[in-house]
User: Fold these one by one.
Assistant:
Number 1:
Amino acid sequence: MSSRRIRVVRPGDLGAGDIETWRELRAKSGAPAHPFMEPEFTLAVGRVRPRARVAVISEDDGGTAGFFPFERGRLGHGTAIGFGVSDLQGAVLRPGLPLDPQTLLRACGLSTWEFDNLEERQGLFAPDAARSYPSYVIDVGDGYENYEKALRARSPKFLRTTLAKERKLGRLAGEVRFVLDERDPAVLRTLMEWKSAQYRRTGRRDRFARKWIRELVEFLFHTRAPGCSGLLSVLYAGDRPVAAHFGLRSRTVLSCWFPAYATGFAKFSPGLILHLSMARAAAGDGIGMLDMGRGAAEYKDGLKTGELTVYEGASVRPGVGAALRWAGREPSRRAHGFVRNRPRLAGLARRGLERAGRLRDPKTP
């Protein structure tokens, strides 16, 4: 395909027809209706990331055959749109479109395109994946009752203990109630404060210390579209929020993004209670799948019903700049992968990060 038939625009310059075609192509892909792959997420990133771009790919007859959202950095280095916070990435293309990544990258002025959560069945970039990861999901497509029945059969102690803690929380802290779609922005700010404290406590980089991420979440909180809406879900004990989650939803998929809880209630496992409440309410609202994302966690092991696969890697055009960029990053990738694949080393690394976090912020519990 000639690069003359690929135009690169800012997300905000996409027209209404482009947006509608994007949605139609996505619906025809056969993939789960994941909100990160909808145009609204790219439009939101475009508001807070000046280097966000979209390649619009045209057919011979002038019709649109696909969209490729990306961010363009120095020396032609590109990343997935919203890189660092986007939980699913890739191009939105007409099935069977004859296109190769080298042609696409050249038209976009990119020497590399880096991804860390590439969607399954992204055939254009799949050969460039360096490794794969499970993304853990909760399937409530057959209703919450069937999910809980399966959970009870697989992990009876886990479910029994969580429900007992919920009852105890209600007795000691006030009636437990859950709101699937909380519209109070003050509660969103509380969630971000909890999450920032969690990042510091565990020695991780505080995402909400970055202005563009805060602005992105606040904008998406007000976004309402069939394929991508911000959803703030909150667990209350009495009138006090004890756990909350902000994510994105389509009609049928809830992408779990930022969960956190008040540490003073940790003994009640409010995060687990929150996720069970989310699964119950989401199923009642037509959502069939909750995607908890990549990254191993004990609570995910307890709640999951299955896994999707996401990929990490980069498409690289031949050239000195791209080769230097990739060579500089790949040793770090291999080291992280080596540690992740060895639970004992991963545990030591995690404890080291937690100690570092306490040294940086001795006030964190």
Note: The domain at 137-308 is CATH 3.40.630.30 (Aminopeptidase).
Number 2:
Amino acid sequence: MTFQPAEDRIVVLESFADPIAAHMAKSRLEAEQIPCFLTNENLVSLNRLYGPASGGVRLHVRQQDAEAALEILRYETVPMAVSHPNDAPEPDIVHCPRCDSTDVAFGPATRNTYSFPMLMLSVLLGYPLRGKRFHCFHCQHEFKRSEAVV
């Protein structure tokens, strides 16, 4: 029986909800010559609902490289959602209709905002289909552009 030295052991560095974000972090580490690999990528890609149950897409490194990898990823922000420039509305300042805060972002809805056809399609596909809405980070209210105070 052989024992691995502590510095050669593999550790989980970070877990990601999105496979794209995990690949971006992996590419950043590989660019700095730090060997790493991903697990659970196919499971999470196959069905997004399995992600939280399986722990997400995990990024593994050698224990001896863990501190350097954390330092590299600390200053590199890896987006959790990829958005396209065409998805964003025009850049005027939007205020929350509930609390009048300007701490508002546009993106996929976090609450169930289904119409009946969208609910049925979501059930058939096996993952939620959500539209894009504004989200207030101050009061957690989600709203459409028509409800926004500009």
Note: The longest helix spans residues 19-31.
Number 3:
Amino acid sequence: METQRKTAIVLGATGLTGGILLRLLLQDDRYEKIKLFSRSSTGLVDKKIEEHLGNLMQLEQFEADFTGDEVFCCIGTTKSKTPQKEMYRKIDYGIPVAAAKLCAQNGISGFLVISSMGANAKSRVFYNRLKGEMEEAVLREDLKNTYIFRPSLIGGKREEKRLGEWVFKQLMKGVNLVLAGPLEKYRSIDPETIAKAMVIVANRGYSRSIIESDKIHQIASGDRD
């Protein structure tokens, strides 16, 4: 009996990790349709792709089209791109939480979202606190298959230039060599690794909802617990 092919929703497909995730889904025969919700087009043309363009901070406008089997949320900004905390919150908190609410409303049981190492709703650090608050709000929607990925510093080449981040990434390449055991989760991580792990977890599940950076590495490499 042929397995029914799935529809995936991707938020953030124009970003670094989201773009890689999209390409993996396009190559995956388990998916027959990939709905992209974004402010601008990816520019990719494929029979699987269905693009919906608009303001993601008003995600409810897409309610009728926000249907599928799984949602991959790769939304995220940076302090340099979004210096105003209010706008930062609308993006990194508002969009994922609105997406989770639409999942609950439209009967989508699979929700996979990228958070960050150190996420903690009680943290004094704005970024960590915001991510922690986002996680808590998403989990409150009580979706059957919710998975929160907490990567450490994400490597890879970005279109915009960030000198300070580039220097830090070069240093981390050396530091990664000595981070072992309990410290493995502090190693920098490639966006390809995150994207691959998200697809694997979406199709095979995982033993916990929150997945730390070292576990993301293990999942992507085929070493699961």
Note: The beta strands are 6-11, 31-38, 49-53, 70-73, 110-114, 145-150, 210-212.
